[in-house]
Amino acid sequence: MPPKEKTDDKKIVATNRKARQFYAILEVIEAGLQLRGPEVKSLRKGQASLDGCFGRVADGELWLENFYIPPYLFATNAEPLDPRRKRKLLLHSAEIAKIENKLAIKGQTLIPLEVYFRRGWAKIALGLAKGKTGADRRDDLRKKDARRDAEKSFKGSYRG
Fold first, then answer.
1. Which of helix, strand or coil describes residue 18?
2. What does the alpha-carbon distance between residue 76 and residue 99 come to, in Å, rounded to a whole number?
3. Other CB atoms closer than 10 Å to residue 153's CB: what's the count?
4. CA distances (Å), 121 to each of 5, 44, 56, 75, 153, in order?
5. Strand spans (E) along 18-147
6. Which residues pair with 77 in a beta bridge?
7. Cα first-last separation, the chain
8. Domains of the chain and CATH, by start
9. What integer is the mean pLDDT of 109-131?
10. What distance in Å separates the CA atoms of residue 134 and residue 132, rounded to the nearest whole number?
């Protein structure tokens, strides 16, 4: 029997659509999430929100704060979990040290981009980001409109 092929499929659970609108993403980092059983069940159902969520380095560890995972209704454990509790991100200590050095630069922050499952494990894509000003956002909108207009003009010109 041939060995199973490793698939790199990922099932996206939650995305932060406003992240690219309000921040310029400089680098993307993938990290594991340390979760409890009922939280994993809620995530698998596609229930999560990244609104207002951010990453922080504290005591040599990387934490995800304000990440909302609603309580799983059918959980049997005695103590309910806080839906917005701090969750530890799983990275090697060298990677955490690099991130900590980059976050020391003024104006840079750690923003979650998406939460997904890869090979059965909960992962999160974090963006090392710098906030955009109002002028930067307007410039991005202008470029997007120009690109859309150019695509429209090319779409109608082909008469094959």
1. coil
2. 38
3. 9
4. 17, 11, 22, 20, 44
5. 23-33, 54-58, 61-65, 87-90, 108-118, 121-131
6. none
7. 49
8. 10-132 (2.40.280.10)
9. 90
10. 7
Give the separation between CA 35 and CA 42, rounded to whole angstroms.
Answer: 11
Please answer whether residues 88 and 77 qualify as being in contact, where contact means their C-beta atoms are separated by less than 8 angstroms.
no
- What CA–CA distance (Å, rounded) separates 74 from 69? 14
Three-state DSSP class for residue 153: helix
pLDDT band at residue 11 using 50, 70 and 90 as cut-offs: confident
Contact 93, 60 (CB under 8 A): yes
Compute the average pLDDT of residues 92-112.
90
CB atoms within 10 A of CB 29: 19
Does residue 129 contact residue 16 with C-beta atoms inside 8 Å? no
- The rounded distance, in Å, linking the Cα atoms of 57 and 50 is 18
- Reported as type and span, the H/E element at residue 150 is helix 134-157
For residue 9, the SS3 value is coil
Answer yes or no: pTM beyond 0.85: no
Alpha carbon distances (Å) from 13 to 45, 55, 82, 113: 8, 18, 19, 11
Q: How many CB atoms lie within 10 A of CB 154?
A: 9
